[in-house]
What does this fold into?
Amino acid sequence: MKLQQSDEEVARLIHEATLFYAKNYDLKTWRVGRGGSDKLFLGSATNRKCRFCRRSEPDVSFRNNAHAIPEALGNNTVFSNFECDVCNQEFGDTIENDFGNWFLPRRMLAGLKGKNKYPKIKSKDRKSRLDWRDTGLHVDNADESDFFIADEESKTLKLNLDVPSYIPINVWRAFVKMGISLVDESRYRYFSDAVAWVKGDLKPDERVRTWPIQSYAMPGPSKITDVTIAMLYRNNDWLKLPYAMLLINYGIHSFQVHIPSSAKDFMVEDGGIDMPLVPMFSAADIKQYGVPQLIELDFSGDQVVKGERFTFRGTYSGVTEL
It folds into this structure.
């Protein structure tokens, strides 16, 4: 989607993308959040078997409530009966910890609560701080700091936030793990290679074929209420399209994640995928706020990333000095 396209052209492209997914994919959605919704447990509470280690009771226990979507995404609604306590602890200590670190600035800006409160971010020198309150986004900014820069004339702002250390490949695995947690029981058998990759159990001569995560954000104000999660399944095995995708949308930000399946992705060519993104913004949103920024996320690295900064540019309606 290009900046110079007319309103009519933008509306046409969104309409065509909507028709593309309606024709080629089946969709299942969940809304996750902390708004008092009833808890949903995926899978049977009896005769449980873990999706990730394939063990069952009494070899492993299932006492803890395993979040199908990490709590860092505001989830206190959708849980999995397919994840044993051993794997739950392992993921929490590794890939989901890395995901939480990488996602922290994004979670902060979206106002996504954790267990009972909003996250806070401090600058490296600990002189500036950003946090959410009931009245909105609150900034304590030190003099001559580039932590927070606001232009009152244009109503634009820029935030430079420090990202806690993380391992990129673990963030990618955490995204894919969410999809595997949500996959229907009837389709789970198609994802054995993805499960092995998430667990780190692939043999040296094995690889999983997947495509980079697509991230896109609207440059307007966040409209966060709940997080929408969706799984999309291709409805025709002869199409040269990915079989399964995870979609995450919160406020002004979306992620589109390929969930690899060697059993079902055999028709997809290595050279790339020619398909539109799932349209999560309306033509009216784009006209008001501008064209969404698309980023292809590179999580291929296996070394710890330290000292990274996340830069956010956006708009605001007003500033109140305290």
User: Anything to note?
Assistant: Residues 7-24 form the longest helix (18 residues).
